[in-house]
Amino acid sequence: MATKAAFSPAGDANSTVLKTPGGDGLTHWRLGGISGGSEAKVVLQHLFRPRPERQIGAALFAAAAQQARQAAFYAVWGAPDTAEGRFELYSLHVILLLERLRGLSGEAGDVRQALFDAYLRSLDDALRDMGVGDLSVGKKMRKLGEAFYGRAKSYEAALGQPAPALEALLARTVFEGVAEGRIDLMSAYVRHCQAELAAQPVDVLIAGGAPDWAEVAS
Fold first, then answer.
1. First vs last C-alpha separation in the chain
2. Is the Cβ–Cβ distance between 187 and 166 less than 8 Å?
3. Predicted structure pTM score
4. Which of 16, 97, 33 has the alpha carbon at shortest distance from 64?
5. Quick count: other Cβ atoms within 10 Å of Cβ 122?
6. Which residues of 165-198 are buried (b: 16+ CB within 10 A; e: fewer)?
């Protein structure tokens, strides 16, 4: 998402206050009588420098996407190798990371939001790569967002219940329409991922460390 900046007069006619979202509210820059453009260059470099949490959120999403592409999920466990099947597995791994960071404030909360933002950007890019026009992308993104939110709430509930609840959820999401998918293996894998991530220090994740996923049995 592009940075939104608002310029408003402050002081004399040659000074301006630039307000741009910062880590704790608004960061204010005052541009006085600038000569030679060097001070303006410094301000612009600071303004458009990627924020660390955004980079870390993107890295966490990339790790989730890479894990979701494990060949065994599709070739051995029977998850559909379709756009819908990949959406379910991408979403599942992002949800596991969001759950690990849920309820945390400060930098962890910022990284959690950045992870979700990276996920949404990926969906938007995927729709455009599939040839969806600009006028339709917004509607489809809303539907996908609603689907993701529903899955996130369902996984949150299922992970706190006995095994049959998670297996039933996987049957109607990841393995929808699959007669002989290895739901038992996927259910065990998801719980192991939850345990591995819970044991991993949050500081490692919000510093850009690779998530500790469970092993995918092939």
1. 39
2. yes
3. 0.76
4. 97
5. 17
6. ebbebbbebbbeeeeebbbebbbbbbeebbebbe
* Phi and psi angles of residue 160, each rounded to the nearest 5 degrees, phi first: -100, 10
Helix-then-strand count for the chain, H and E: 9, 3
**Identity (one letter) of the amino acid at 194?**
Q
* Cα-based angle 87, 88, 94 (whole degrees, multiple of 5): 90
User: Which amino acid is residue 19, in one-letter code?
Assistant: K
Which residues in the chain are classed under CATH 1.10.357? 52-206
Q: pLDDT tens for the chain, 218 residues: list them.
A: 443 333 233 334 333 333 333 333 333 333 333 344 555 555 555 455 567 899 999 999 999 999 999 999 999 999 999 999 999 999 999 999 999 999 998 999 999 999 999 999 999 998 988 888 888 898 899 999 999 999 999 999 999 999 999 999 999 999 999 999 999 999 999 999 999 999 999 999 999 999 999 999 87
Q: Which amino acid is at 156?
A: E
**Paired residues of 28 in beta bridges:** 19
**Contacts for 137-140: CB closer than 8 Å, 24+ residues apart:** none
Distance CA 8, CA 19 (A): 8
Q: Tell me the C-alpha distance between 62 and 67, whole Å.
A: 9
The CATH number of the domain covering residues in 52-206: 1.10.357
